[in-house]
Amino acid sequence: MASFMGRHLHALDNKKRLTIPSAWRELTGQPAQLVAVPSVTNNPDERCVWIYPAREWNLRVARLRQVSSADETVRRVLRVLASRSEMLTWDAAGRLRVSDESLKHAGLTGQVLLVGAFERFELWEPELWKKQEETVDSTVMLRAFQSIGL
Predict the structure, then answer these.
(1) CATH code linked to domain 7-148
(2) Bridge partners, 52 (sequence order)
Protein backbone atom coordinates (compact mmCIF):
# COMPACT_ATOMS: atom_id res chain seq x y z
CA MET A 1 0.00 0.00 0.00
CA ALA A 2 1.27 3.46 -0.89
CA SER A 3 1.97 5.97 1.86
CA PHE A 4 1.21 9.63 2.39
CA MET A 5 4.56 11.31 2.95
CA GLY A 6 5.90 14.84 2.96
CA ARG A 7 4.32 18.20 3.71
CA HIS A 8 2.33 20.67 1.66
CA LEU A 9 1.35 24.18 2.72
CA HIS A 10 -1.97 25.36 1.28
CA ALA A 11 -4.43 28.11 2.09
CA LEU A 12 -8.14 27.71 2.67
CA ASP A 13 -9.95 29.59 -0.07
CA ASN A 14 -12.82 32.02 0.59
CA LYS A 15 -15.26 29.07 0.72
CA LYS A 16 -12.99 27.27 3.21
CA ARG A 17 -11.95 24.67 0.65
CA LEU A 18 -8.54 23.06 0.66
CA THR A 19 -6.67 21.71 -2.36
CA ILE A 20 -5.32 18.19 -1.94
CA PRO A 21 -2.10 17.47 -3.90
CA SER A 22 -2.81 15.39 -7.00
CA ALA A 23 -0.32 12.69 -5.97
CA TRP A 24 -2.18 12.27 -2.68
CA ARG A 25 -5.53 12.11 -4.47
CA GLU A 26 -4.14 9.25 -6.54
CA LEU A 27 -3.08 7.43 -3.35
CA THR A 28 -6.64 7.29 -2.06
CA GLY A 29 -7.56 4.62 -4.60
CA GLN A 30 -11.17 3.53 -4.94
CA PRO A 31 -13.54 4.67 -3.75
CA ALA A 32 -12.20 8.18 -4.34
CA GLN A 33 -13.38 9.38 -0.96
CA LEU A 34 -11.77 10.52 2.24
CA VAL A 35 -12.89 10.43 5.86
CA ALA A 36 -12.09 13.37 8.14
CA VAL A 37 -11.81 12.72 11.88
CA PRO A 38 -10.85 15.35 14.46
CA SER A 39 -7.79 14.03 16.30
CA VAL A 40 -8.48 12.23 19.55
CA THR A 41 -6.15 13.73 22.15
CA ASN A 42 -6.06 15.41 25.55
CA ASN A 43 -3.10 17.53 24.48
CA PRO A 44 -4.18 20.82 22.85
CA ASP A 45 -0.82 20.93 21.02
CA GLU A 46 -1.79 17.75 19.13
CA ARG A 47 -5.09 19.02 17.75
CA CYS A 48 -5.30 18.36 14.03
CA VAL A 49 -7.68 16.65 11.60
CA TRP A 50 -6.92 13.09 10.50
CA ILE A 51 -7.78 12.37 6.87
CA TYR A 52 -8.05 8.71 5.88
CA PRO A 53 -8.77 7.18 2.49
CA ALA A 54 -12.22 5.59 2.78
CA ARG A 55 -10.79 2.10 2.24
CA GLU A 56 -8.33 2.58 5.14
CA TRP A 57 -11.05 3.98 7.40
CA ASN A 58 -13.30 1.04 6.55
CA LEU A 59 -10.61 -1.34 7.87
CA ARG A 60 -10.64 0.55 11.17
CA VAL A 61 -14.43 0.51 11.32
CA ALA A 62 -14.39 -3.26 10.79
CA ARG A 63 -12.15 -3.59 13.89
CA LEU A 64 -14.46 -1.28 15.85
CA ARG A 65 -17.42 -3.48 14.96
CA GLN A 66 -15.69 -6.41 16.64
CA VAL A 67 -15.78 -4.58 19.98
CA SER A 68 -18.68 -5.56 22.17
CA SER A 69 -21.63 -3.23 21.78
CA ALA A 70 -22.84 -4.48 25.16
CA ASP A 71 -20.32 -2.12 26.80
CA GLU A 72 -22.07 1.20 27.41
CA THR A 73 -18.84 3.22 27.30
CA VAL A 74 -17.85 1.68 23.97
CA ARG A 75 -21.27 2.50 22.53
CA ARG A 76 -21.02 6.12 23.64
CA VAL A 77 -17.48 6.53 22.30
CA LEU A 78 -18.36 4.98 18.93
CA ARG A 79 -21.47 7.13 18.67
CA VAL A 80 -19.52 10.33 19.33
CA LEU A 81 -16.66 9.32 17.02
CA ALA A 82 -19.07 8.59 14.18
CA SER A 83 -20.95 11.85 14.74
CA ARG A 84 -17.72 13.88 14.50
CA SER A 85 -16.39 12.07 11.42
CA GLU A 86 -17.35 13.03 7.89
CA MET A 87 -17.10 11.57 4.41
CA LEU A 88 -15.42 13.90 1.91
CA THR A 89 -14.99 13.99 -1.84
CA TRP A 90 -13.02 16.49 -3.85
CA ASP A 91 -14.26 18.57 -6.75
CA ALA A 92 -12.79 18.70 -10.29
CA ALA A 93 -10.05 21.06 -9.04
CA GLY A 94 -9.03 18.69 -6.23
CA ARG A 95 -10.55 20.82 -3.45
CA LEU A 96 -12.46 19.51 -0.49
CA ARG A 97 -14.48 21.21 2.21
CA VAL A 98 -13.87 20.08 5.78
CA SER A 99 -16.59 20.96 8.29
CA ASP A 100 -16.38 24.14 10.36
CA GLU A 101 -16.37 21.96 13.49
CA SER A 102 -13.24 20.08 12.35
CA LEU A 103 -11.51 23.28 11.23
CA LYS A 104 -12.23 24.85 14.63
CA HIS A 105 -10.98 21.73 16.47
CA ALA A 106 -7.58 22.12 14.77
CA GLY A 107 -7.48 25.94 14.83
CA LEU A 108 -7.43 26.12 11.03
CA THR A 109 -8.35 29.51 9.63
CA GLY A 110 -5.97 30.48 6.82
CA GLN A 111 -2.87 28.47 6.08
CA VAL A 112 -3.09 24.70 6.48
CA LEU A 113 -0.16 22.31 6.55
CA LEU A 114 -0.97 18.89 5.10
CA VAL A 115 1.35 16.39 6.77
CA GLY A 116 1.83 12.83 5.54
CA ALA A 117 1.37 10.19 8.24
CA PHE A 118 1.75 7.03 6.11
CA GLU A 119 -1.76 5.48 6.14
CA ARG A 120 -3.41 8.91 6.45
CA PHE A 121 -2.54 12.56 6.23
CA GLU A 122 -3.23 15.27 8.79
CA LEU A 123 -4.30 18.90 8.61
CA TRP A 124 -2.29 21.12 10.95
CA GLU A 125 -2.14 24.78 11.87
CA PRO A 126 1.47 25.55 10.75
CA GLU A 127 2.70 27.05 14.04
CA LEU A 128 1.25 24.15 16.02
CA TRP A 129 3.01 21.69 13.69
CA LYS A 130 6.28 23.56 14.26
CA LYS A 131 5.87 22.95 18.00
CA GLN A 132 5.29 19.24 17.28
CA GLU A 133 8.45 18.99 15.20
CA GLU A 134 10.48 20.63 17.95
CA THR A 135 9.57 17.79 20.33
CA VAL A 136 11.27 15.19 18.11
CA ASP A 137 15.05 15.56 18.10
CA SER A 138 17.56 13.01 16.78
CA THR A 139 17.69 11.16 20.12
CA VAL A 140 13.91 10.72 20.21
CA MET A 141 13.94 9.62 16.57
CA LEU A 142 16.74 7.08 17.17
CA ARG A 143 14.94 5.55 20.18
CA ALA A 144 11.71 5.27 18.20
CA PHE A 145 13.47 3.63 15.27
CA GLN A 146 15.21 1.16 17.58
CA SER A 147 11.98 0.26 19.36
CA ILE A 148 10.28 -0.67 16.08
CA GLY A 149 13.31 -2.35 14.56
CA LEU A 150 14.29 0.13 11.84
Answers:
(1) 3.40.1550.20
(2) 35
